[in-house]
Design a protein that fits this description.
Order of helices and strands: HH
Strand content: under 5%
Oligomer: single chain
Distance between the termini: 28 Å
Largest sheet: none
Number of helices: 2
Helix content: 25-40%
Shape: elongated
């Protein structure tokens, strides 16, 4: 959890990973896949935004 989540509790879902509280599974959100591409391309994909 980051500071925003501490302030909001579990009302808002923030971050790059979704937590399913019932199964405890943690699939990556679309934003995590996008960020992975930015990291792998050393920022080259930022010019496409």
């Amino acid at each position: 959890m980051d500071n925003f989540e501490w302030a909001e509790g579990y009302n808002k879902r923030l971050g790059l990973i979704h937590v399913d509280y019932e199964t405890q599974k943690r699939p990556l959100k679309d934003s995590a896949h996008w960020y992975r591409g930015i990291i792998e391309s050393n920022g080259a994909g930022l010019h496409d935004v």
